Structure formats: structure tokens, C-alpha cells
């Protein structure tokens, strides 16, 4: 299925050209790595995909629709930072509330919260308060939040930043497990970490897409 199409896509902030004439077509499936140094334009591309900002010129469509259009609600989700968790309420309470915001009601909101918490391996922590979670668990809780409503595309901006190697690996295994039902677009400044996980790598540098490389066999053991 066509996931993303960009043609001549540029984004300017004042005089700064953050994305420079990007042409790109992506299909759903294996995780896709978006790699480049700080300032390369990774966050800008993700923000355009989400419809948070508008292109300065060129075109972009996601699942054939304009980013931000109502038909994409629920289909596209993002983890751009850690979940916004209220210290006074349990994970289950908070995710069920979030599910309600996504249109689930009553018992089905609880069921959806339990489903996503199980997906990320937090079934034993459903009654925990955020302060009782380790950093790695907090990250998984944030991913659980992004999975509510079963999106088809999930954007992960530096999902392993600040995690120790074991927790970083847990996140990669989680992504491998949920793929390819969900297509993940994962930004990182560290290609090595994503090489085994991803089926495709997009290199951004100074706003230019320098290469889009297909990796032969993504290693699901990553
Ligand atoms: P990355 O995510 O790869 O670090 P960004 O997309 O955040 O890159 O930034 C790309 C370039 O655009 C950088 O030079 C950054 O400083 C600049 N930039 C990003 N957002 C803004 C903004 N709101 N206003 C001005 N410049 C911005
Ligand atoms: P990242 O490193 O994840 O790309 P940053 O920490 O660079 O994000 O940017 C955080 C926020 O600051 C974003 O909203 C971005 O748009 C904005 N920003 C980044 N660079 C600039 C800049 N040069 N001028 C103004 N805003 C910026």
C-alpha cells in the first residue's frame, strides 16, 4: 500500500531551508529508518507527515491523503517525546482516557488500554503510577499510547534516546514484533542501531535526501 509520496517537497523557516526539494515514495511494510545528523531535517519531515506544519513548496501525501486530514486521524500516530503522563493516575486509567479521546467508549476504552499495554509488555504494570516506572517502561508506555486505535503508520522520533542498551534493544524488539502490521518510520542519528531492524534507510543531510537504500533482509531478531 502506498504510504508516502513527496515531490519537490521543501520547507523553509525564514532563511533556513530545512528540507530541500525531496522526492520520495514509500510503501507500507518493514520499518523505515530516517537517518541523519542533528539539523538534517528529520523532525521537519515528520512534522510535515503529521500535518503539524505546511510545506513551503512541493507536495506530500500520506495514504493518498493530505497530512492532517480527518481521514488520517487514527491511521497515523507519533511518539515525538515521552508520553504526557499524569503522576496521580495509573497507566490503565490514563490510557483508557486516551482511548476515549480516540472514540472508544466505556468498557471498550478499558479493553483498548489493556490491549496496547499488553502489546508493549506492561500488563503487570497496569495499576502502576508513572513515578514507579523505569525510564524504559516509561518509553514503552509512550509507545502504548501511540498504538491506541491501531494506527497503520507510527512515527518514532529518536525512540531509544537516553536508554541503556538493554532497554534500547527492548524497543527494537517491540518494533520488530509489531511490524509489518504497523509500518514504523524511525528517526535516529545512529544508523548502526537501525540497520538490522529496518528494511529501508533514508539518509537526510542538510535537508536533502541523499540516498534511499533498500536493505535486503531485515533481521527480525534485531
Ligand atoms: P533534525 O530533526 O534532523 O535534527 P530539524 O528538522 O529539527 O532537524 O531541523 C532542520 C533545520 O531546520 C535545522 O537547521 C533547525 O535548526 C531548523 N529548524 C527546525 N525548526 C525550526 C524552526 N521552527 N524555526 C527555525 N528553524 C528551524
Ligand atoms: P530535534 O533535535 O528533535 O530536531 P530541536 O530540539 O532541534 O528538535 O527543536 C525543538 C524545537 O525548536 C522544535 O519545535 C523546532 O521546530 C524548534 N527549532 C529548532 N531549531 C530552531 C531554530 N533554529 N530556530 C527556531 N526554532 C527552532
UniProtKB/TrEMBL annotation:
The chain holds residues 1 to 222 of 299 of the full protein. The keyword Plastid does not apply. It comes from Shewanella yunxiaonensis. Belongs to the ABC transporter superfamily. The keyword Disulfide bond does not apply. Residues 4-222 form the ABC transporter domain. This is ABC transporter ATP-binding protein. GO terms for molecular function: ATP binding. Keywords: ATP-binding, Nucleotide-binding, Transport.
